[in-house]
Specification:
homotrimer; 1 helix; 17-stranded antiparallel sheet; mainly beta; globular
């Protein structure tokens, strides 16, 4: 499980913020060595009265894994997110700026985007030597269980401490409207120099995707028990109205699973203050 | 816990379907040897904000068990279901036909029928030698916590590999309307021949029960790691409109708690396709 | 975890009542010996779709504890409740009278009063020798995340088997109305004589608090495996309409975590019957 407590400046005033969570991790192995399992948090278990959560495929996930790769079903991330992840989380509460922007790379699919009860996302990943590939999809169809459908593929190549990769995502019949399709291609790179790691991406929207292009950079550096991290991202929209947002944070490891974490986050939208927080995080 | 993932044909198109669940099992023994305990799934824990689930008696159950038999309270099954159970589950998702019919024997009471927050069902079971008896009831009363009330009794006699039994159920003031009562009597038999088990029942409705009569047959056969199972049921209504439904399935045990399971389910209602599924099931 | 089952007379008729719950307890220690942890029940985990529960700080709590005292954040009790607690719980279901009154001392703040998602309560407690002090607050502010704000302080002094203490609580902008403030002061005493414990309190409301004054007495006595307990409380309102309520109960320890518990509860409001219950309680 995990927990956290501290204070958050939401752009207008300071507030207390705390939480406690428990994660269930399930695993097993078949007689011929195929691994299987699943994972979800207690607050994602779902409510059998409301038909939501991991018990209905809309949170958490299950997987089967072997020489053929890994197949995961549930609230899986999209293929490019599976290979590149997001930029570093800032602050003990994973801060968002006053405009609601944060460290997540704006992938088009996966990670809850089209995951509903009865409409889980399937993610396939496979690695061999320096090469990793991934594919993901949901099963939506106009007039069926869910109107939207998504597909994504991604590949990455690692040479020593450098990884480069690409991704391509498609979201069809967005909002259940026939013919409204979004696409997005991504290029991403990760480089590690000693205790410093740098991640950069460029994303280019297509079809009716309101995002024309987006790009960002994240850096994480360790100095003993202290980690300093930050990110900056910019999105340009086809309808205009570009926005840049960024975050800067630090954490100090107290040992035993506890750390002191703080950060600040902001964007260049008009009339918004930065947000900030300072608190302790626990891992159990 | 348990999990599953695979694909389901819902009568119109194929969809992904997955889930992950965790079950809590609690038990203890008093100084004089009486056993007690309870059980519920994480998704049945309830939400203390919404006042539902096992924390409010409407899901899961608790029990006390000793030489006097077993008393269970919560979302208990009815007396006849406690002794005879249901017909075999078909498919990795416990398939229902496109008309919503499935392998469950249409008992009148218990198993959630009148179980609400503050209105749990009590089930008493007792076995001695070849004889098993059961009684169940809820505490509803017109104008009280819950308007509906239920009662049921059942008995079974086992001789070698043959079990025969009867059940009688009563549901009073259905829908909170005074004097609208349903009754239902059941006869059931189970026979086991080597690796094959056969279950059959006949149910006869009474008073305002819309079901005039229902009957069904289920068969389960094991061939090494493979199990084949199926059921067929028919219900005849006092208002006409008989319906027959059935299911056929198979599972292959992979060991370690994993199995490949698939099935097909259908009914003779007009304009409906069969439903089918194929996937893997996990037990942890 | 814990469970219970039995029958309850709600003032009108007898009903079955049962429940089953699981509690998660998390703890750890940093390298320099500071303890941290958290606790919540499965039904308090929250629902990540509904943004409630321990995962959002509105139920359960987390803490950090060391030589400096203990800081708890989440659904914490108020400072005076942390030091004095409530009067004894009566009946296996923690009975309330037909008028909704129960054994809880009517503290003004904490314990869910102003705890909402995003607005946890912070409680600080510190003990040294015979002295204990506590302070609690929430972060509400008119027009912010939550309109109401609360503060409370308390102190206690223990001499041999006698403890005396005071508390002061303030709830500002009640119901989000500027200038509607409630205050309340409390005096409390606990005395232990062998197997008998007596607790008494007096509370005096101030500002717009509708309670003018309240006072109560609780007694718990052990006779071997049997415990007898009871309480009586009276509240006087500035607008008139005094009310007295009381409860009397007993429990018998069966060992292994099970006990038989029963009680009766009543108030002097017009036209209400007593409530009563009898059942078994389990601890796992």
């Amino acid at each position: 499980g995990d927990g956290r407590m501290g204070i958050v400046y939401n752009g207008a005033d300071w507030n207390f913020s705390s939480r406690a969570r428990v994660t269930f991790t399930l695993s097993g192995t078949t007689d011929n060595g195929i691994e299987f399992g699943g994972s979800f948090r207690a607050d994602q278990a779902g409510d059998s009265v409301l038909d939501n959560g991991a018990a209905y495929g809309s949170e958490g996930s299950v997987y089967v894994s072997g020489a053929f790769g890994k197949i995961e079903m549930g609230d899986a991330v999209s293929a490019p997110e599976a290979l590149f992840g997001d930029l570093p989380e800032v602050g003990y509460t994973d801060l968002t700026s006053a405009g609601g922007l944060e460290n997540d790379i704006p992938y088009l699919t996966g990670d809850g985007v089209t995951t509903l009860a009865g409409n889980p996302v399937v993610l396939y990943t496979y690695s061999t030597g320096p090469i990793s590939i991934a594919a993901s999809m949901s099963d939506g169809k106009l007039g069926s269980v869910n109107d939207q459908q998504e597909y994504a593929v991604a590949g990455a190549y690692t040479y020593e401490n450098y990884t480069v990769g690409f991704g391509y995502e498609m979201l069809e019949d967005v909002g259940g409207v026939a013919g409204v399709d979004y696409t997005q291609g991504e290029l991403a790179g990760v480089a590690t120099f000693g205790d410093t790691s740098v991640k950069a991406y460029f994303a280019k929207g297509g079809k009716q995707n309101p995002v024309d292009q987006a790009f960002g950079l994240g850096v994480t550096s360790k100095f003993g028990a202290t980690t300093v991290l930050g990110y900056v991202q910019k999105a340009e929209f086809t309808a205009g109205g570009d926005v840049t947002w960024y975050g800067l944070g630090a954490s100090y490891d107290l040992g035993g699973g506890a750390s002191i974490v703080g950060g600040i986050s902001d964007d260049d939208l008009a009339n918004t203050d930065p947000t900030a927080d300072l608190g302790v995080k626990f891992k159990f």
